[in-house]
Structures are given as structure tokens and as C-alpha cells.
Amino acid sequence: MPYRVLILSPSTDDVHTLKHALGNARDGPFDVENAATLTEGMRRILSDRVDAILVDLDLLDSQGLAVFDQLFGAARHTPILTLCRLDDETNAMEAVQRGAQGWLSKGFFDSALVPQALRNIIERMKVERRLYVAQARAGITLNSIGDAVISVDVAGRVDYLNLAAERVTGWSRADACGRPVAEVLVLIDRVSGRVIISPLEHILQCGQALNLTGDAILVSRHGRHVPIEDSATPIHDWDRQLVGAVMVFRDISETVALTSKMRHLAQHDFLTKLPNRSLLNDRITQAIALSKRNGTCQVLLFLDLDKFKHINDSLGHAVGDQLLQAVSERLKNCVRTSDTVSRHGGDEFVILMASERRPQDAALTAEKILLALSTPFHIGTQELHTSTSIGISAFPQDGIDATALIKNADTAMYHAKELGRNNFQFFRPDMNTRAVERQLVETSLRRALERREFLLYYQPKFDLQTDRITGVEALLRWAHPEWGLVMPERFITIAEECGLIVPIGRWVLGEACAQLVRWRDLGMADVSVAVNISALEFRHRDFFGHALAIFDATGVDKAHVQLELTESVLMRDVAASAHLLAKFKATGVQIAVDDFGTGYSSLSYLNQFPIDVLKIDRSFVKAIDAGSIRNGAIVSAVIDMGKNLHKRVIAEGVEDQAQLAFLRKHRCDEGQGFLFSRPLDAAQMGAMLDKDMRA
Predict the structure, then answer these.
(1) d(Cα 243, Cα 200) in Å, to the nearest integer?
(2) Concatenated DSSP letters of 453-507
């Protein structure tokens, strides 16, 4: 493409000479136009592209530097050369100061150097234009990215910052440029606080790149500490000589904060914010190492909340979670800041007591915890009561690592539960035998339902005035293939703690109803069956629905089904209990209060529940002495109360004639116990019912 040149001159000779010189030049081709006035020249410049302007400052309509100024204002980025006489170069030199690329002396226009110089000037301007575009693009790009960029010259003076670098360092480009990089880029180590040499300085000193460690902190001009990560690179000229360095870095405050948060979440329980198992294990390991050095004793307390599952199932997980949070706060208030309170999972907590002198000193903390948790918890509108069972183990006598210490403290905790809950026990080696036994029972229990190892025995209840059978109570037995017939005392508590009591309870109710139907089909239609309902079953959200499904599936007469519940189960949530019992009562099911007198015995609530039967606890019946009226006072009082409230009264655990005589004298309705019959299997019980019916 030819170079387009505009000649502005009133001299036709000058124009002719220049056109001739440019037309025959090897450095072309040149496309030359000319005008004699500034007005015509301005029109031409504004209408089309011009690569160079040759102008005589003495035009027909304008003279002097004013000519150049107007041209330069209209075509700032087009090369302009002035044409002047050899003896009058003053204006030409001034024009150069104002932006002209040079001048051509009249009388030398036909020189071969003219087209060569003009070509070079045009090409240089094109290069400068491309360079400007590249620099503008680079500047926009660098200011658009989120990373900070700072560069220095070979002397270590700042020569560039992008906008991100200005924000992070607190230095503007105008203030920073020319200053030593160590003044603008102040770096320290996060851990030690010592000053770190910047990667830029390292490159200038050693010629090699050096990236910062992950603990580098940039101290901004305003004193703000900013964690950063970077990459730095040397800058070389075309002779591979080092001329500076550039560093790209970013503010990683959010990343550091997120990493810290993730680390915290990985080591802490989400609900209570307490250390979790992972962090506890680390601290136990550290504490053991410390004990080996200074001879102190590390003690673990393993806590399990008593009957927490009842609260969770009856009041919901939201209330249960709030209770766990409240318990966590009380536990933290019971220990020193050097101790660790952790949540082990569920309703279990583990406390690491560091630097104890003797394991026995932990008993004081355990007592403090028992007392703290004995105070009622107020969760919303609920007043909740709980307690805890605590197992204690100590290093090194009870274990030399975290796993052994936690396991043995857990074992001691279960021993505390077996001793009545709400107490603490130190680990003893013999407890492991009991722990193995408990684990074996739990494992076997999980298979018992699938293998149909459970069966029901039945104990009859007798009308004490007619001596006729009024009904039976279903009693669970476990026919273990190796242990033989296992009584409930050995496995019911374990079933409650591991959550198996609900499916077992459903099986008991279903089997009892099915057996009642079988007896009915054999002609024994007036028999009722009583089934014990555990707290976990009663508070289970699907209990009523599952019970109705069983009644419908078996076809049992619901009027002959009696659900037995203890006072403590009913009183845990009076309103909910009354509502559920009313639903059962509406179907025709009978309701009995088992072990009456051993629980709350809150007579003011008796009329709120649709109760049909009161069962006097066997402990009161056993206390009846033929020679002492006083010992039977409780039994007679319960009988009288039942009569006044129009409830049937049944005495449990009747074992001798003296007890029977007392009960008959006070007109107790029914009796149950070994004096009448031991629990029998279904076939034996059927035979007894048949005999009673025919009598």
C-alpha cells in the first residue's frame, strides 16, 4: 500500500520538485497530493487518511507557527515536517519543540535522502502507534485482573503498580514510582513476625525467582496486615541482560479465613462448637507426651446423658439439640481453661483433664458435674431434667494411648449406668468382662428379631372374689440358641440404649394380639391381654399408627387389649400423654398404670388420663405382713383410691396366703403372682384358660 503524503505549499516549484523526488524513489511508493491553503489542507486531512504532512509555514491563508498548531491539533498522530529556507530555520526548530518530526530545507528536496527519511518517519510512527495500542491493552488488562502487579527497575525502584496493587499496598502509582521496593512492599512472616526479603529484591540480587511461603504477610502503607501469595519473574532485555523484575500477588485473606474455618469445622462439633473426636485425640496424644516429661497424670471423663433418648423422641430433635448445647455450656463451666470438653457423638461427651496430680482428684470434678446437671434446664417453655453417668480412666494405668483411655472410660461409664445412673465410676480391669458381655448381648439382640428368637410367656390375672381368670399379661423371653431362655432383666436395658426396644416392642404387641385371636378362635373369647409399653415406644412418633396397623392386621378385639405404662412414662409430658391415651381410648383399648405408687404418684393428674386399671407395685404387696396392719397401709390406701375413682385395682407379686387374705379383705379386684401361677408359654396358658372356662 502506497504511503499517502499531503504537501501544503503555495510554491508550485517546491511541489513539483517534491513530487518528482517521491515519485521516483525506491523507498515508496508514495501517493502525493497537494494544497496551497491551510483551509484546503484541513479539509483533506479530516476527510481521509494521510500518512505524512509536508507543510510550508507561509501559506496563502495562514502563516507562521499558527499553521503548524492547527495542523498538529487536527492530526496529532500524523508525522508533520516543515518546509523552510536554509537561512530561516527558526520557526522550523520551534515546530519541532511543539511536536513536528523535523524539517526539509528548500533547495534539497530532490535529494535521495528525502523519500528515505520520510519513509522511516512514517514507519516509526506506525510502530509507535502499535506500541501505544499494545501498552494501552496491557494497561487495561493489568487493571482489569484481580491480581496485584508491581514491577521494579534494575536498581530496585518501583516503576509500575496496577490498581489491584494500589488497593493492597495502600500506595498510589504516583507515590510509589521511584521509591525502593522495600519501602512499598513490606513483608513479614506471620508466625515469627520477622521481615521477609521480597521476591523482587531476591531476583535483583541473585537473578533467580523466589516465591513466598504460605505464611507471608504484606503490611500495607496504612498498617493493615494482608496475607498474600505470589509469583515473581525477572525482566531481561534483548541482550538477556537483567533490567528489572515483576511480581504478581493476590490478597488471600478470604482463602486463609475459609481454610481456618474449614479446619475449625473439621475439628469441632457443628452443634455445640466443642472439639470433636479428631481434635480430642490430638490433645490426648499431646497431653500424654507432656505427662511423660513432667510426671503429671492425664484423666479422661466419659459422660453419657441419662435418658436423653426419651427427651429426643418425645419432644423432638430441636429441643434435644438445645439441651445438648445447654449441657455443653455447663460442662465448660465445671472445668479449667486448660482442660478440654469435647462432644464424642450423640449425647456423649469426653473431658480431658490435663496435669492432674492424682487420678482421684478427678472425682471432685465429676461431683461438680453431677451437681451442675441436676439443676433443671429451661428450653423454651419446657423444664427438662436430666443427669449423667460418668466413667473415668487415667494415664498410664488405664491406657497408654487415646484409644485405650477412651475405651476404658466408656466401659466405666456403662458400669455407672448399671449402678443406677447419675454417678461416676473409675475404671477397673474387671469391667472389661462386663463390657464384653454387654457388647455380646447387643450384637445377639440385633439378630434375634430376624431369627425369630423371641417368644412370649403369659401370666394369668385372677378375680380375687371368684378365683376366675380375667386376663393375662404378656411377658417377653429370649430363646437364645446358646444361652437358653434369657430373662428380660439381662437385655431390656441394652435394647433401650441401642434403640432396638421399639421394633422389639412392636413384635411383642403384634404377637400378643395374634395369640389373643388364636385363643378366641378356640372359644376363649373373654380373655384380655396386657402388654407393657416402654417409654421409647410410647414417645415414638409412629406408635399410634403402628398399633392400629397391628390391631387391623390381626383382627383382635381392641376392647380386650390392655396397654400398661408406668407413671414416669405418663408424667414425662402430661399433655402429650393425655392426648395419645385419649386416641387409644377412643378405639376401645384399655389403659393400665403399671407399678403404681413407685413413680410420681401425682394424684392430681390421675383424672386427666383415661385410665382403667391401677396395678399395685409388687414391692408394696411384698411388704404386707400378716402380723402388722401398718405395713399394708399403702396397699389399702391404693385400693380405696381406686374404688373412689372407679378404677379396677390389680395387685402384682402375690406370693403367699397372708397377702391374698389381706387383699381379699380390702376388696382388691384382681391379683397376679406366683401364688396363682408362674408365667407359662402359649400352649400351657391356653390349657389353663380352657380349664378355667370349663370350671
Answers:
(1) 12
(2) -EEEEEEEEEETTT--EEEEEEEEEEEETTTEEE-GGGTHHHHHHTT-HHHHHHH
Mean pLDDT of the region 320-331: 95
* Mean pLDDT for the chain overall: 88
Extract the C-alpha cell encoding 640. Answer: 380405696
**Distance separating alpha carbons of residues 625 and 691, to the nearest angstrom:** 33
Q: Write out the three cell numbers for 543.
A: 406408635
Cα separation of 594 and 651, whole Å? Answer: 10
Return d(Cα 196, Cα 669) in angstroms, integer: 93
Distance (Å, rounded) from C-alpha 502 to C-alpha 429?
A: 33
Q: How many whole angstroms separate alpha carbon 457 and alpha carbon 683? A: 10
Measure the CA–CA gap between 425 and 491, rounded to whole angstroms.
Answer: 22
Annotate 3-61 with DSSP letters as a single string.
EEEEEE-S-HHHHHHHHHHHHT-TT--EEEEEESSHHHHHHHHHHS--SEEEEESB-SS
pLDDT of 71 above 60: yes
Instruction: Inform me whether the pLDDT recorded for 355 exceeds 90.
Output: no
Amino acid, res. 376: P
Neighbours of 694 (CB within 10 A): 7
Strands 52-56 and 80-84: parallel
Task: Give the other-Cβ count within 10 Å of 243's Cβ.
Answer: 13
Query: In this structure, is the dihedral angle defined by the CA atoms of residues 155, 159, 164 and 170, taken in order, positive or negative?
Result: positive
Cα–Cα distance for residue pair 522/686, rounded to 1 Å = 9
CB atoms within 10 A of CB 245: 26
pTM of the predicted protein model: 0.50
Q: How deeply is 340 buried, as exposed, middle or buried, from its count of CB atoms within 10 A (0-12, 13-18, 19+)?
A: buried
The H-or-E segment that residue 340 falls in is strand 340-345
In this structure, the dihedral spanned by the alpha carbons of residues 435, 439, 442 and 443, taken in order and rounded to 10 degrees, is -170
Is the Cβ–Cβ distance between 77 and 125 less than 8 Å?
yes
Q: Report yes or no: 632 and 623 within 8 Å, Cβ to Cβ.
A: yes
